[in-house]
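2024-03-11 09:14:02 DEBUG pipeline.ingest accepted 1 chain
2024-03-11 09:14:02 DEBUG pipeline.ingest length=328
2024-03-11 09:14:03 DEBUG pipeline.predict start
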Amino acid sequence: MAANGVVSGKSLIVSFGEILIDFVPTVSGVSLAEAPGFLKAPGGAPANVAIAVARLGGKASFVGKLGDDEFGRMLADILKQNGVSDDGVLFDQGARTALAFVTLRADGEREFMFYRNPSADMLLKPEELNLDLIRSAKVFHYGSISLIVEPCRSAHLKAMEVAKEAGALLSYDPNLRLPLWPSADEARKQILSIWDKSDIVKVSDVELEFLTGSYKVDDETAMKLWRPNFTLLLVTLGEKGSRYYTKKFHGAVDAFHVNTVDTTGAGDSFVGALLCKIVHDPSILEDESKLREVLTFANACGAITTTKKGAIPALPTEADALALINGA
C-alpha cells in the first residue's frame, strides 16, 4: 500500500461495478418457488474478476458501492479476506446492498431474480470515485450492469475516461443480465454505447447472438463486433472453449472437460486469468503462441470454477489451473 491509501505499482487491475449477494437454492434443479432453502453466496461479476485476479497472485482493487448494512460489511470483508484492496469501496446510508436469487437448473445453467430498487451499487456518483486509485490501474475492467441507471452510469463513464487518460488498458465483459434492463433493445443499445472505447472485449456465445442478432456463432458474426481500436476480442463458448480475434490473427482454443456442477463465475474466472497474465506482459496481445498459452490457462481457470457451487469458493489458484493443464 502506498502512503496515500492507494495500492501502488503498475501491475494493478481495478475492477468497477457491482458486488452483491446471490441466494442459491440448497437443492439443484428446482425453481425459486420450489427451493426448500437458500445459501448466501457473494457475487457480482466485477467483484468475482477482482477476486479471481487476487487468487491467481495478481494485484486487484474493486470500485463500487455497498449498502451500509450487515450484507454490505460482509462483502467488503470478503474482498479483503480474498486479497482485494477495498480502497474504492463506498457505503450508502440510504440504500441496501443488492441481492439476487439464482436458481441452478438441472443442467447447471442459471435463472435470476434481482432485488435492486434501488440498491447501493446503482447510487455511486462520479464525484465519489477514488480517482487516484483509478489512475493507478494498468488494467481497468468493467461490465454493463453499471450502465443501466444514473447516477452509476455517469460514474462508470467518468471512471473509464480517467483510466484511459492515465494509460490503462480498458477491459469490458458486458455480462448480460436481461431482467435488469427496461427492455432488450435498451440493453443492446447501452451495452454497445461504450463498445468503441475498450481495448479488450469478452463476450459469451449467448451475448454474441444477442448483440449481433445472428444465430450463428462463427467468425463472420464475431467480426461484426470487432472495432478498429480493439486489441483483443474474445468469444467464450462454454464447453467448446474460446475464440480470439486480434488485428493480425484469430483462432480457437479448446476447453477442458470437467464435471460441471455450477457455471456461476466461470466467465469471470476466465477474464481474471487473462488480465492477470496481460498486466505483466502486454506483448501477449501481439504474439499468437503466447496468447494461445494464456487462453489455455484462462480456459482451465474457467473450467475449474464450474466444478463447485458458487463463484468465489470455486475460483482457482495458479497451481490448480496448471494441474488441470498438465493432467495431474
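2024-03-11 09:14:41 DEBUG pipeline.report The chain has ten helices and 13 strands.
2024-03-11 09:14:41 DEBUG pipeline.predict end
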